[in-house]
């Protein structure tokens, strides 16, 4: 909008982060309509176009500012620069920019948008490396990482126009430190501009609050697909019926994906067949009139038929048998509700079967979590069973997250939290486990969070201070409390990554409560395999975490 007055075409220059950010909400056609003729990469060599204006959208880092200065310092590459930063630009970088290319800059703004909008109710900080920085004993930059995450969380609040109260789960120091940082930064931000609505609450917690959900085999469509099918950067590669290689992007533009992603896989397949069946001869003539949109819908349905088929293939090959043992270990009782007295008897058949090493590690971890830690001797036997003697870190490194792995035989520390009774809600025998975050969200919405367990870092807004409770369980009529709470938000931030099943919980509670929107986020999104790899890497040094390609780039 700043340079719309001139009807001339412009160039847009992005860094790696802003490329992702813009891709999440814009198509090339949107940019064309704003008179953007070409999108360029800030880090690459670019041809000079001295007769055109350039819009720079980038992170406020020394690397980005140096690249901008390089474009104008000796011989200007462009006619003028319109510069936008995702976040606060430090004074020294601003002064450098002003000194070397100030006369070419027409506009310079900080947009406060340094997070990644992943889905309608999910954001990330696009920082998988934060896991190592926060939890590795070899990390040197934990404080810097928490500072950066705090800035990004404040950026989320500012974008939502919220000045929230902040609470944190009181068990490890990182959540407390982050809560303090967020609270101070929010105060500073709203000191300058006190326009934020005071109807939100932020809850900060760490990955140890529920180690089970991210490693369990989930049978809802999105979680299952990302666990069992090789989906990279939200892109699903598949072969069409004629053998051609195809790609599909699984995002908010795919309406069928949005509709089906939280459904159980049993419902998904049936639903897709139903949709296809509805496209019958009778409405073909109607469809032909809307040919492009008809084609798109048909393609969407074909993609999901294939993806659901891939999921079901993996399920029937291996996962189905695993799921029963996993659910029994996670829930602590079998399908009939009979308590699992000897979890080792549940685990052994899994270890004796020809499952993959990752699947066996997941089962061993679920066993250890179910008994709140095991003895050194017992663990050694389990590690021999799985044949990972040289890779014990997959299991041992959970201690860095505060999850008990080894306990002495005389002292078994039980950390089991009291769970909500959901026996009336269960529909599928192999999906009896509910992520702990759903209990937390429902307790928060009903103002039932224990104040010792969840201290307030700052005063909560009136609708969150105990008088505006709403029930997340009943189909309730709108009450005066609901009216007060209407339009309020609960923002959850999990340090150490978030799983797809936890993302689903934010939507489920929002659906059932109506008067409160739940937004959930983290440094990054986890799959069971990526989490195990992250855990294993905690005992390595920073350079050892890079793949070979990354090392050559670094």
UniProtKB/TrEMBL annotation:
Keyword Transport attributed = yes
The record's section on InterPro entries has: Sec-1-like_dom1 (IPR043154), Sec-1-like_dom3a (IPR043127), Sec1-like (IPR001619), Sec1-like_dom2 (IPR027482), Sec1-like_sf (IPR036045)
Locate the coiled-coil region(s) and give their ranges: none
Q: Which GO terms describe its biological process?
A: protein transport; vesicle-mediated transport
Please give the superkingdom of this protein's source: Eukaryota
- Keywords for this protein: Protein transport, Transport
Per the similarity annotation, which family is this?
Belongs to the STXBP/unc-18/SEC1 family.
Q: What is this protein called?
A: Syntaxin binding protein 3
Organism this protein belongs to: Anabas testudineus (Climbing perch)
